[in-house]
Amino acid sequence: MSDGGRLLWIVGVFAAATVGMLIGIWIGGDIEAGIYEDILKKANLPAECWEKISAGAQDLVRELEGGEKPAATKAE
């Protein structure tokens, strides 16, 4: 086998391993998110808790999108 053919095999193996790793991370994250959703569904939380969870999630999304931090956490 020539050096070019050997290099092509090495690159192909590493590319396949990288793609497999990324797919595994994606699937693992999806499974973990589903577990957290199931826990919250079975927790039977009162309406006030759901409002706080929703507000916290919206604040987190705003912060991740580059928006301003909510007023309650600015002092921290």
* Low-pLDDT sequence parts: none
Query: What is the number of helices?
Result: 3
Structural class: mainly alpha
Strand content: under 5%
- The H/E string reads HHH
Overall outline? elongated
* Radius of gyration, in angstroms, nearest whole number: 22 Å
Say how many strands there are: 0
Q: How widely separated are the two ends?
A: 63 Å
What does the average pLDDT come to?
87
Helix content: over 70%
Largest sheet: none
Task: Describe the structure in your own words.
This protein is an all-alpha fold and 76 residues long. 82% of the residues lie in helices and 0% in strands. It has helices at residues 3-42, 47-64, 71-74. The radius of gyration is 22 Å and the shape is elongated.
Question: Which SSEs are present, and which pair or pack?
Answer:
Blueprint: H1 3-42, H2 47-64, H3 71-74
Kindly summarize this structure in a few lines.
The protein has 76 residues and is mostly helical.
